[in-house]
Amino acid sequence: MAIFIRFLMTPDQTTNEALTRINQLASQGQRIQALDLAESLLTKNPELTQAWLISAFLYFQTNQVNKATEAIAKARELEPDNKQVAFQQVMLLDAINLPQDALVTADWLSHNPPADDRMVEQLARFLEINHAFESAHRLFQRLSKSQPQHSGWKLKLAMIEQNYGRIEQAKELAKEALVIN
User: Fold this and answer.
1) How far apart are CA 78 and CA 148, in angstroms?
2) d(CA 74, CA 45)
3) DSSP for 13-33, written as a single string
4) 151 vs 5: CA distance, rounded Å
5) What percent of the chain is modeled with pLDDT above 70?
6) What whole-number distance in Å separates Cα of residue 80 and Cα of residue 34?
7) What tens digit of pLDDT does each residue of 112-157 get?
8) Mapped to the 3 state alphabet, what secondary structure does 136-156 carry?
9) What is the torsional sign of CA 52, 54, 56, 62?
């Protein structure tokens, strides 16, 4: 799993350099060294969300699942309204096979979706797979509006409507999907 960490705040130059070095080490497969540096950075800057995020994924990659969940929870605690942090939490919890733990955050994101359609798509599929159909429906609706020429979103909406027994709505959505194609 690649580490996708965006700078969530403006760190000072030394911190920025350390974060860059951690990402370099991780991308070179030197996870233990990267993790050592990340832990050192957290000792000096325990309120640094980026370092907690990086640490969470490094712990995951080094099979330290409990530490990974603790680190991602700390990042979320530091920035509870940050959609990117919330998204990363959902993806990590899903990757370590704790989808039930991720559903609360994923549902929150369905009401407060990130701007990136790729993130919205991943969340919608996660919610659908985990039978959180109402939340998935919200996100597929958003995708359908932001990508009106993508018939797949209409078909996803139609399937959810069918699952809820709303057959007429499902038929309408399926027809709309066919018109797009």
Assistant:
1) 36
2) 13
3) HHHHHHHHHHHHHHHTT-HHH
4) 31
5) 92
6) 25
7) 999 999 999 999 999 999 999 999 999 999 999 999 999 999 999 9
8) HHHHHHHHHHHCCCCHHHHHH
9) negative
Q: Rounded CA gap, 112 and 81, in Å?
A: 9
What's the rounded Cα separation, in Å, for the pair 140 and 153? Answer: 6
Burial 103-129 (b: 16+ CB within 10 A, else e): bebbbbbbeebbeebebbbbbbebbbe
- How far apart CA 37 and CA 33 sit, in angstroms, is 6
What's the sign of the alpha-carbon dihedral 13, 15, 16, 20? positive
Cα(105)–Cα(77) distance, rounded to whole angstroms?
12
Q: What is the pLDDT of residues 70-94, one digit of tens each?
A: 999 999 999 999 999 999 999 999 9
Nearest-angstrom CA–CA distance, 86 and 77:
10
Output the pLDDT for position 13. Answer: 53
Amino acid occupying residue 55: S
